[in-house]
Amino acid sequence: MDGLSSEEDSTKVVMVLAATNFPWDIDEALRRRLEKRIYIPLPSKVGREALLKINLKEVKVDQAVDLTKIASELDGYSGADITNVCRDASMMSMRRKIIGLTPEQIRQIPKEELDMPVSQWDFEEALARCNKSVAREDLEKYDKWMGEYGST
After folding, report:
1. GO CC terms for this protein (predicted)?
2. Which residues does 40 contact at the CB level (< 8 Å), separation at least 6?
3. C or N: which end of the chain has fewer Cβ atoms within 10 Å?
């Protein structure tokens, strides 16, 4: 930004970082002062698979689960969407175990019985329940904005 990097002492330099989901709403004067405008797209297939692994790091996952296949099915999902799918899938086995039980019966279930591995079916169910949060029209709007104002 204008004037922020004029300090001789490099330890006193200020860096401004801004993020928005609506870059087209940024005031023109502010946009001019934010010299670099970078669009971070939705994750690629490799990125989606990496996000699945990160989100499932502390979760017991069945060996038959095919993360590559799941990553393919998550095309168009944001990082937050993928986190939601993982969270939902990880709770599926517990939901099946407690369905129809009273709160008292649920408290009686040994903890190890609730610690079931996440299966491929759990992911399929979670995918059916968790929708993408980014519309195709929004992606086109980002592309148009980047073509007009973005940095390379």
Report:
1. microtubule cytoskeleton
2. none
3. C
Same domain, 49 and 93: yes
* Contacts of 62-67 spanning 24+ positions with Cβ under 8 A: 62/117, 62/118, 62/119, 62/120, 64/119, 64/120, 65/118, 65/119, 65/120, 65/123, 66/120
Pair 149, 126 in one domain: no
Give the range of the structural domain holding residue 120, as residue numbers without chain letter.
45-133
Count of domains forming the chain: 2
CA distance 79 to 122: 19
- Yes or no: say if 86 and 55 are a contact pair by the CB < 8 Å rule: yes
Do 49 and 36 belong to one domain?
Answer: no
Q: Whole-prediction pTM value?
A: 0.81
Q: Which two tokens stand for residue 56?
A: 């499932």
> 3-class DSSP state for residue 117?
coil
- 50 and 106, same domain (yes or no): yes
